[in-house]
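Let us begin with a simple case.
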Amino acid sequence: SLNPIDFGGFMAKYLDREGKWVSEEEHQQLVRDKHYPLVRKSVENGHIISTVWLSWTEDPEELFETMIFKEGRFIDVYSMNYKTEKEAIEGHNDARKWLKHHLEEQNGRN
């Protein structure tokens, strides 16, 4: 069924990476594939840039997310959401450029 799921006050529906609504059963199959959610992953200077398909959303405009981690922790200065996989891939590349610039600025201050 395509019934929304109640997550403590907001309603989410399942979408695949193409942004098509899928049933809970189809969603579970996609999530079981450990490679399906990962769009891109880069390791740069001890940081991990990860872009993933979120698998469920209240807002179809935010189906993908890019975050930067260091030593397993999220760097709270960078988190971006995207509607399409194409935008997410472009955003991942932008995050790589952002991190390079951010690290150069930090190194310039040291």
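The second case is a distinct protein. As before, the sequence precedes its structure tokens.
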Amino acid sequence: LQTQGFQDVQTRLLYTSRPAHTWLHDPFVKTIQRAFSLAYGHHLHVLPLTEESYPLAPFREVLKIPVILTGVDHSPAQLQEPNELTHRQRFTTYVKFITLLIEEVSHRVP
């Protein structure tokens, strides 16, 4: 901040956390990708680390379970759409994705 002309601004560290990380070759990632492709009709774009994963790190570290974040795309361009039907269709497709994911995971449980 000081190099950008904000010498009067002071900061202090309040909290730190490591990101939750699941390897791309993990079988759960492959399960997510299959369910996504079936629901959306195209390949999933994977972002290895995002800031949203930080609060999930204890699940990965303590419980030793894979952590994957998914969500409905609400990019700024799409938020401007006046057509409510488009939002409903996007939500419906996401529900289909989650349903397919649960079905895929249920086949893996002994």
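The CA atoms of residues 20 and 106 lie 23 Å apart. The first helix runs from residue 27 to 40.
Keep these points in mind for the review questions at the end of the chapter.
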